[in-house]
């Protein structure tokens, strides 16, 4: 039996941008659209023309930028109540956007018609029919979004179906059923779709929100029941709890349901697409996001790792590489000797699993993790630890004294000044530096003290700084864990420091970050 073709409709640029914390410029939206086009997403919803100047600017910019594979869609509402379609300002704006595809939403829930639109149920049906028909007369592909369809179907199935019939009668190319409040369960999705299929013959779509954590499940259920268009956003961005995550849906349909969605070569771009959009949206991607998160194929428990070494199928549901991700073995007190051996092999260090070296390393990791260290996110610190315990780490410099002070706190513009005295090869180097904060000042002073002996220091710069409280019950005396990320032209690395004093913890991580660069050359 030939598999049906599933079309994917991305609404990251509109619905996704409604997520708390996301604010996309027109330029940002063009960058994301071009990346989605490159991947091969079938429809890209650009925004609601007329609702704000930024969205209309996007439609102008994307025409100049051009897309090769995707269709750009403008989004808007049915005409206003008791208004002629051709005179409705927002319908005019839809036409001004100049797209070949327009998505129009209309009310399916009688409660919304009377309470939000404040109009008669019959008038709402006319609004749907006349708007879709008007756009179709202008040779536009129309996707009708049946807003709140599942809630409307549960409250008044007869009216919800009548609303769909009006859009179908007017010539809509697709009727997308929307779980706008995100509260529908999979079996309810199935029941409603079966009834819809007996009522209209127009191809169906699905648009789910994630308020019950079921947006992906409901979307997959809908495809199983015959929906051929799936709406969602990259990484599930969206208002409240978000929209259906297209990354997961595409992966599940292609890899689990064996429905061909994209060529295998494109599927390998899913992880980079996911991370790219997260970067443009300035939203750190959740480590535990399925398929594309950094921890999606990360293994920590010793029993798990031991089994993984024998056969990856033991604790992985798909091969990481099919979605462009990769397998990671995390260093921790839970990992055991097997993990130590795997990491040692990566570092090209050779010793036996039951050797004194592996026991020594594991014992030290367990001791440090008891103190609050975590090496799974600081692999540079782990590598230095192993090299140091094996006597293979060259001492590049010695810290003689360090001090830092911050002035004008609470009044005026505060400034921090750090003094660092180091010895390199028996020669002392003393430097002072001013910074925006104590860590910035320490970083500047440390590098100034080392730059003559190690000119390679100029190649690196600090890119991220994170602080976590280890034992919050201790209040202001709690230990803190500091992660510092550095970068050069070729790679990025992270180190960790732990102490009750945040400056001391930061200094430890800074020193190791510099040592790692010098060690790697």
Tally the beta strands.
Answer: 16
First-last Cα distance:
58 Å
For the residues shown, what is the average pLDDT? Answer: 89
Work out the radius of gyration.
29 Å
Morphology: elongated
Top CATH class of the largest domain = Alpha Beta
Second-tier CATH architecture of the largest domain: Alpha-Beta Barrel
Question: Low-confidence parts, pLDDT < 50 over ≥5 residues?
Answer: none
Task: Describe what this molecule looks like in 3D.
The chain has 521 residues and is α/β, with parallel strands linked by helices. The chain has three domains: 7-262, Alpha-Beta Barrel (TIM Barrel); 298-389, no CATH class; 398-520, Double Stranded RNA Binding Domain (2-Layer Sandwich), CATH 3.30.160. The protein is 39% helix and 20% strand. It is built from 18 helices and 16 strands. The chain has helices at residues 26-39, 53-65, 89-96, 110-115, 121-136, 149-155, 157-169, 186-197, 215-224, 246-256, 264-267, 270-281, 302-310, 336-346, 356-371, 379-389, 438-450, 502-520, and strands spanning 7-10, 43-47, 71-77, 101-107, 141-147, 174-179, 204-208, 229-232, 298-299, 328-329, 398-407, 415-424, 427-435, 461-469, 480-487, 492-499. Strands 1-2-3-4-5-6-7-8 form an eight-stranded parallel barrel, surrounded by seven helices. A three-stranded antiparallel sheet has the order 11-12-13. α1 (26-39) crosses α2 (53-65) and α13 (302-310) packs across α14 (336-346). The model has no long low-confidence stretch (mean pLDDT 89).
